[in-house]
Amino acid sequence: MVDGLPARDRRSRVRDATTTPATADDDAAVDYSNLPPDIVADIHARLTHLDRLTVAAVFGAAGHSMNPEAPWLAIPGGETAPAPPTKLYSISDRRAAAARAGEAAMRGCFFLGGSSDGGWLVTADKRSRLRMVNPVTGAHRALPAITTCPFFYTTSWAGRGSHVNLTAGPFMRVRHGGGPPPPPPPPEQLIGASLYTVTAGQVRQYVYRKVVLSAAARPGSYAAMLVLSPDLGAPMFATSDDPAWRVAPSRDGVEDAIHHRGRFYSVTYTGVVEEWDRRGGGGGGFTSRTVATAPLKPDDLKNRKYIAAAPDGKLMVVVKFFKDIKYQTRGRDGYLRRTHTVTDMRVLFKLLVLDDEESGRWRKKEEEVGDAAAAAALFVGVNASMCVAATSGGDLAGGCIYFTDDDVARGRPFDKSKDDDHWRYREDDREIVAGVYSLEKHRAHKMPVLDRRNGNADADDSGGGGDDDGEDDGEDDDDDEVKIWPPPVWFKPCTSAASSSS
Fold first, then answer.
1. How many Å apart are CA 87 and CA 95, to the nearest integer?
2. What is the pTM of this model?
3. pLDDT single digits (tens) 139-189
4. Which of 109, 468, 474, 490 is deepest in the core (most CB within 10 A)?
5. Rg of the chain taking only CA atoms, in angstroms
């Protein structure tokens, strides 16, 4: 007799355990809620960076309070099996690994945003079908098709595939609130006055811009805001109880949006901050009210703008732009060292903080905004913008903006051979696919370049803008750079019970 059981019974139990496959019900029957918190913390601390997310989701579903994760970077993979899979990059661990869960739902997809705190990404496959995916748990669910909006419909021709058509006239009238028709579009604008047609695969590149999910989104209970391309401008909304895209009026056009305090907030191309609410609390469309207008300069109207919420809840408008910077540097010219005037194309950011919504007062002076952002890290790009408190352990750098390229319509990574003005610059920040910008130093540097051979990243990831010693060594490391397209996206893994259990 061993362990209180006869040998025969013990052998029977071992045989049953080894021959009966484990099922999801068996896993669900395991009760992790009774584990002591110190044991949970010890287990979590011993795991690798990707296992840490998976186990945190399990423990979170069991009701344990897990330390929040810093945002991760999701890097799209290829469409076919030999192509690189979707990778998840950890800032704190400075390592990347292939996504294990949800890979089938993410393969060959564009990432078009998601939720700021629920751990969800929104993907668009090669036919531009939208889906919300949790890259940690593997849970996924389809979002409504674009053709649920009455202004979009599909056509198919033999040998030419499926196409999506937009009746632009009625669409623009709804976008402008039923007012007079807008002026004729400029010649370079893609959207015509009557009908606009793209292939099904081009919708995710030329029609979609970003999808923002509600804060507590999960399959079966969500609200989604679809921000369309600059040529279209209008936002569209869909909910789990009304799974069809509805166009909402926006005369100035929505450029970016977030979900904050239970509502959607957006910034227009003219800098107007709007709050969106559902008429009647349910079943109706979304309408907006003006919260404030950001004090933008005329040049800012054509620059990229994001909206975010600070850790204290105040709304912020982030402006991203590029500028020629000239400076002196010493370099070798044959046998001599000479001083040269060189030019960089640098990316710059500025923050505007809405200090008081009632009076519409903004903080725009550099020292005031710097104090507000010194203890926070901001994440902008294709994702719904996030602003999180910088950790004392140094995983995130305070006073920094973590950004990604979000120009999906460009259709390729920055290419020197096709961008004629690149030769003018010693350094060109337009090449940066994912980078970190220091608000104090006004400099950006690239995030570690991923090595596709082993998934490791360079160790130089301090979070702040690197110093430039002004020395031109004549070396060119462009050959080592990995071109990533479509752009990666930031997401924040969620370890709460509600999101993990879904």
1. 10
2. 0.80
3. 889 999 999 999 999 998 777 778 999 998 899 989 988 766 556 555 445
4. 490
5. 25
